[in-house]
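User: Hi! I have a protein structure encoded as tokens and I'd like to know what sequence might fold into it. I'm fairly new to this, so please keep things simple.
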């Protein structure tokens, strides 16, 4: 790997690949320093549980780089920055096919298609940047820019056609770095919806039955119904069979299907009930934990009081604030979709089922990320104070050799109704 150097006084900053045998402590220190919020404000800390590449290691290809400050006599070395990147193949658009022949799609309403036309996904190789950190003492030296450029070189070397990143819409320094200096453009603004895990179980609607699908059945359902959704991963089978995936759950009207008479996804989709919904659950708790710091004693006391009341009087189903002021884990809900006039109700039932699963496994919250235009969004229970109404995804085209000219430049494509958020990168 080519090394990159940036001089300051008598020190040299070198970019190199992360070495787990010697860099873990330095990386953790930079993470700690970067996550210290302004005095008196709440801050969210991440504990990577000794595995700095936990958020990329399940992707088909990944890389982590560190920026290391080295003294001129090579005696003192210090990690002062890092970046992570991964590459996968995803859906970037769709084309229509009639009897095996491609047909240009001009209909602006994606939900109204000629019955003789079959929508097919158009795939592209997509790279994702996450975990860019530069120690506060080494900012304004161009280290962040150099890290981005170097990981982009690796993306190009491995055939990625696009690169994207996600950040808080209020993170102006990050947005300015990527849009002003690195050539990225604002692309999508999904919402992160977070719901606390209460001390009591959530009661599900009596008219809904929840079935757990096998990974193969779940793959079949997703590929047949959601493969043309933007950002859908072509290796969905690897996601569903991953040890962190706790299962895919289907909500149907009670009296239609059960685990005992389940016909399989193909037959189900051939003659589905009027309304249904599906989602999958990813166990982030076994990858890393979170912790809210900077809360006043009054806030902590009030939060603790709600939990005490919730445990003592569970039948009242009072909302309680989970224990967020010490390390907590969470589950991520992905692959959310459905159909029919009552699909929001079925999504709500699935979220309740996921809540109860998270309660059994000792999680503090459940979270999901959906398009701001997602029709099923209203069925997802969440607390506004814990959620983010507008996350920001920025994208950049790395190469001109695009795989399918019928789609054109993805960076200029209008947003669809839904997106598929890969849990391996959340």
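Assistant: Happy to help. Inverse folding works backwards from shape to sequence: for each of the 426 positions I chose a residue that suits the local structure. Here it is:
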């Amino acid at each position: 790997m080519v090394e990159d150097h940036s001089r300051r006084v008598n020190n040299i900053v070198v970019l190199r690949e992360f070495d787990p045998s010697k860099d873990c402590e330095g990386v953790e220190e930079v993470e700690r320093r970067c996550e210290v919020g302004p005095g008196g404000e709440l801050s969210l800390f991440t504990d990577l549980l000794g595995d700095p590449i936990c958020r990329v290691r399940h992707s088909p290809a990944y890389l982590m780089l560190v920026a290391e400050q080295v003294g001129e006599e090579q005696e003192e070395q210090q990690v002062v920055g890092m970046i992570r990147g991964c590459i996968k193949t995803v859906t970037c658009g769709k084309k229509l096919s009639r009897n095996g022949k491609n047909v240009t799609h001009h209909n602006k309403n994606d939900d109204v298609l000629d019955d003789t036309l079959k929508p097919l996904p158009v795939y592209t190789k997509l790279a994702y940047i996450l975990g860019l950190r530069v120690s506060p003492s080494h900012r304004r030296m161009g280290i962040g820019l150099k890290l981005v450029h170097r990981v982009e070189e690796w993306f190009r070397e491995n055939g990625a056609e696009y690169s994207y990143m996600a950040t808080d819409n209020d993170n102006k320094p990050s947005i300015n770095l990527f849009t002003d200096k690195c050539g990225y453009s604002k692309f999508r603004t999904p919402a992160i919806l977070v719901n606390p895990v209460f001390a009591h179980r959530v009661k599900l609607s009596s008219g809904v039955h929840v079935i757990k699908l096998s990974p193969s059945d779940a793959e079949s359902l997703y590929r047949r119904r959601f493969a043309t959704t933007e950002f859908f991963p072509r290796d969905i089978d690897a996601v569903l069979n991953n040890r962190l995936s706790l299962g895919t759950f289907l909500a149907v009207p009670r009296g239609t299907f059960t685990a005992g008479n389940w016909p399989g996804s193909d037959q189900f989709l051939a003659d589905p009930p009027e309304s249904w919904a599906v989602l999958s659950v990813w166990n982030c708790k076994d990858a890393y934990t979170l912790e809210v710091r900077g809360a006043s004693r009054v806030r902590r006391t009030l939060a603790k009081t709600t939990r005490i009341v919730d445990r003592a009087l569970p039948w009242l189903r009072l909302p309680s604030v989970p224990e967020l002021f010490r390390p907590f884990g969470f589950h991520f809900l992905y692959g959310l979709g459905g159909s029919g006039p009552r699909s929001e109700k079925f999504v709500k039932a699935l979220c309740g089922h996921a809540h109860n699963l998270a309660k059994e496994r000792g999680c503090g919250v459940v979270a999901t990320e959906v398009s701001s235009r997602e029709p099923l969004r209203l069925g997802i229970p969440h607390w506004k104070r814990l959620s983010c109404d507008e996350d920001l995804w920025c994208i950049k085209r790395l190469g001109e050799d695009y795989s399918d000219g019928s789609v054109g430049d993805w960076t200029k494509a209008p947003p669809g109704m839904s997106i598929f958020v890969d849990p391996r990168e959340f």
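A useful reference point when you look it over: The helical segments are 24-34, 143-157, 172-181, 215-226, 236-240, 265-270, 297-312, 343-360. Feel free to ask if any position seems puzzling.
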